[in-house]
Amino acid sequence: xxxxxxxxxxxxxxxxxxxxxxxxxxxxxxxxxxxxxxxxxxxxxxxxxxxxxxxxxxxxxxxxxxxxxxxxxxxxxxxxxxxxxxxxxxxxxxxxxxxxxxxxxxxxxxxxxxxxxxxxxxxxxxxxxxxxxxxxxxxxxxxxxxxxxxxxxxxxx
Length: 157
Known about the structure:
Elements: H1 5-22, E1 26-30, E2 35-39, E3 44-47, H2 59-76, H3 82-113, E4 121-122, H4 128-156
Antiparallel strand pairs: 1-2, 1-4, 2-3
Helix pairs in contact: 1-2, 1-4, 2-3, 3-4
């Protein structure tokens, strides 16, 4: 059923990953040269900074986050197939971990693009995949608990 607690966790996971797409992840300002650099889910936004062509495919963060959100929404509607839900939860765990890895990769590249002595400011959206990871683990726990309950009821019949 859709009103189960794991569905709420999966919906919150999808909202966290979708909000990651709209919010900035990291921001750095060099006060001496008035240069600014912001990392979003789809690229670097710069003001007064010449970005090198080999900045990397930053859009990877956005595509992984969007795929994770879509998978979480699809997982909600697989409530009749709990084992499939667990498998999709495992795949989603890998997607969220890849999103975290891509964030750290492009965060460190961004730190090197602008005055290395200054440290950039990490925004709240940077931590949203960590929240999504916890929500995914909670959803998988409750899905597993439902599966065990159904199996124990089948044994009693």
